[in-house]
């Protein structure tokens, strides 16, 4: 799950809005879309952008991204 939240390189918000997807470190694609002025990563809303980290740029989202091939345990 963690590697589905990381993209290689330094991608600023001005670049993100021009993309339709980005490949995460785990190899899966993350869909990028706009809903008016709101940026969505899959179904997660980007709430803060371009936060400078010690090893990259951080964009804050409002939910956990789950890789498409993740199998969750059943709740039986």
Describe this structure in words.
It is a single chain. The protein is globular, with a radius of gyration of 13 Å. Strands 1-2-3-4-5 form a 5-stranded antiparallel beta sheet, with no helix packed on it. It has one domain (2-61): FAS1 domain. With 76 residues, the protein is mainly beta. The mean pLDDT is 95. It contains 1 helix and 5 strands, in the order H-E-E-E-E-E. It has one helix spanning 13-16; strands at 21-23, 29-35, 38-41, 44-53, 56-61.
Describe this protein with a few key phrases.
single chain, 76 residues, mainly beta, FAS1 domain, five-stranded antiparallel beta sheet, 5% helix, 39% strand
Question: What's a quick, concise take on this entry?
Answer:
The protein is built from one helix and five strands, in the order αβββββ. It has one helix spanning 13-16; strands spanning 21-23, 29-35, 38-41, 44-53, 56-61.
Topology (SSEs and partners):
Blueprint: H1 13-16, E1 21-23, E2 29-35, E3 38-41, E4 44-53, E5 56-61
Antiparallel strand pairs: 1-2, 2-3, 3-4, 4-5
Q: How many structural domains can be distinguished in the coordinates?
A: 1
Total strand count, please? 5
- Shape from CA axes? globular
Q: Tally the helices.
A: 1
Give the strand order, joined by hyphens, for the main sheet.
1-2-3-4-5
Secondary-structure content class? mainly beta
Largest sheet: 5 strands, antiparallel
Low-confidence runs: none
Q: Mean pLDDT, nearest integer?
A: 95
How is the quaternary structure best described?
Answer: single chain
CATH class: Mainly Beta
């Amino acid at each position: 799950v963690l590697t589905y939240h990381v993209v290689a390189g330094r991608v600023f918000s001005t670049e993100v809005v021009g993309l339709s997807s980005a490949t995460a470190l785990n190899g899966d694609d993350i869909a990028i879309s706009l809903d008016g002025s709101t940026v969505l990563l899959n179904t997660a809303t980007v709430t803060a952008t371009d936060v400078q980290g010690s090893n990259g740029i951080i964009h804050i989202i409002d939910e956990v991204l789950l890789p498409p091939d993740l199998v969750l345990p059943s709740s039986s």
